[in-house]
Amino acid sequence: VTTTVSAHSAKVKIAEYSKTPEDFLRKYDELKSKNVRNLDPLVYLLSKLSEDKEMLQCLQQNAKERSEASANATTSTTFAIPPTSTKMSMQELEELRKKLGNVTASSNVPQSAEVTRKMLRDRHNKKNPTQPNPVFPNWVYDRPALIGDFITGATPAGDPAVAIGTMPLPAQEQALVDDLLFVLVGVDGRDITAQPVLGRQNRSFIVDPTLDMSIKELVNRILPVASYYSTITRFTEEKSSFEYGQVNHALTAAMRTLMKEYLILVTQLENLHRQGMLSLQKLWFYIQPTMRTMEILASIASSVDKGDCMGGSTLSLLHDRTFNYTGDSQAQELCLYLTKAASVPYFEILEKWIYRGIIKDPYSEFMVEEHELQKEKIQEDYNDKYWDQRYTIVQHRIPSFLQKMADKILSTGKDTLYYLDQICSDHFLVHPDNGQCKSLCSCEKRIFLFICYCVCF
């Protein structure tokens, strides 16, 4: 699949052939949100199979034969049927239903951020026991006021003395403008309150039902921006923890830079409101250009969160988003900015691997993984298992734009390491006259490494 159009047409074609198209499209969107590799090529292959009548007949015949064989195997097996006298009472049946419901609900609930951080931290510490991940103190997570998002568990200040629906329309509008300026930066207003979120859900809001319908309609158009802000804020706070890797750290830093521009806009709108020059219509007019940017940032944040992306998988998702926004120059430029910012730490690891044969990957994000093996016959046999098994490629860590170069990157780093290991060990050379080790000065090291690079390439 080389274009988004071919993948989309293949998806539509399978939905037309499917007996349950809604289930198929729902499953496709779920897998797409998790950044599943090779999803579009698989859908394209299935669409081609659905067009081939001979292949379909062969598959149907095969399925029929297998079902008949399984039916014959079932009938040939004897089962002990329980006596009909043992029946479950209604109370036992209800208890069983509740237990099954609780198990199903608990399996569908996503893991909390604390559990995910602990799992990633334990996995890293098991792999690198000498270099444990640093950990933020508990008060960073225990104080919700530090996050910048809505505090939904706070006690309300009390019912307003006058219901907003009893006010005249100009007063209602000014009150709602004041509320919206608070809600746009993650603070509940008097007549607009945020709802608690469960897992990775989007933030929703409750607006006073007594509000005039015309004003309420305009308010509902602006509230998605506040929902996007909440999603982005929660994402940047969570992914800034050490356990999520340098690529996610760089991505959240780039998002925070854009969020500063958004907060400057809200500050300017508040200044207009204090001067009495901001109406609800003007607020809607000024916020529209920012709405598209916030929507894209929130969509990327949700996709990275749902797919549990780290390292190369995050870069693949950003690259695919940049490619998919072809035709929308503003969205493509925004995604390209995020991709460039997030790829900086990954390419620093890549540069050290290619030019020095070193993997400095504290969070297990790089495509090449190093395994601890003993050096055996390394001086005599270049193709020994030491070189084949010590450095391997991890497929899900390869960015999609480096997929074709993965094998070449692996072999280049191996060659660099091999030549450096043959010539010296930790920047020491054996003196040709007396056989003693001679330490190199900084100038000699630069010349020596330059000669090694020339030999390697």
Taken from the alpha-carbon principal axes, the silhouette is globular
Distance between the termini: 34 Å
- Report the oligomer: single chain
Radius of gyration: 30 Å
Strand content range: under 5%
Helix and strand pattern = HHHHHHHHEEHHHHHEHEHEEH
> Into which percent range does the helicity of residues fall?
55-70%
Unreliable sequence segments: 77-82, 105-109, 426-440
Number of strands: 6
How do the strands line up in the largest sheet? 1-2
Largest β-sheet summary: 2 strands, antiparallel
> Class by helix and strand content?
mainly alpha
GO molecular function: gamma-tubulin binding; microtubule minus-end binding
Keywords: Cytoplasm, Cytoskeleton, Microtubule
Subcellular location: Cytoplasm, Cytoskeleton, Microtubule organizing center
Function: Component of the gamma-tubulin ring complex (gTuRC) which mediates microtubule nucleation.
Describe the structure.
This protein is mostly helical. Among the domains are: 138-150 and 163-308, no CATH class; 345-455, no CATH class. The chain has helices spanning 4-17, 21-33, 39-51, 53-76, 90-108, 113-127, 139-142, 169-183, 213-239, 245-274, 280-306, 312-324, 329-356, 385-389, 406-423, 442-456, and strands spanning 192-194, 205-207, 368-370, 391-393, 428-430, 437-439. The strands form 3 sheets. It has a two-stranded antiparallel ribbon. Helix 9 (213-239) runs antiparallel to helix 10 and helix 10 (245-274) runs antiparallel to helix 13 (329-356). The chain starts with a helix and ends with a helix. The model is unreliable at 77-82, 105-109 and 426-440 (pLDDT under 50). It is found in: Cytoplasm, Cytoskeleton, Microtubule organizing center. Component of the gamma-tubulin ring complex (gTuRC) which mediates microtubule nucleation. Its main location: cytoplasm.
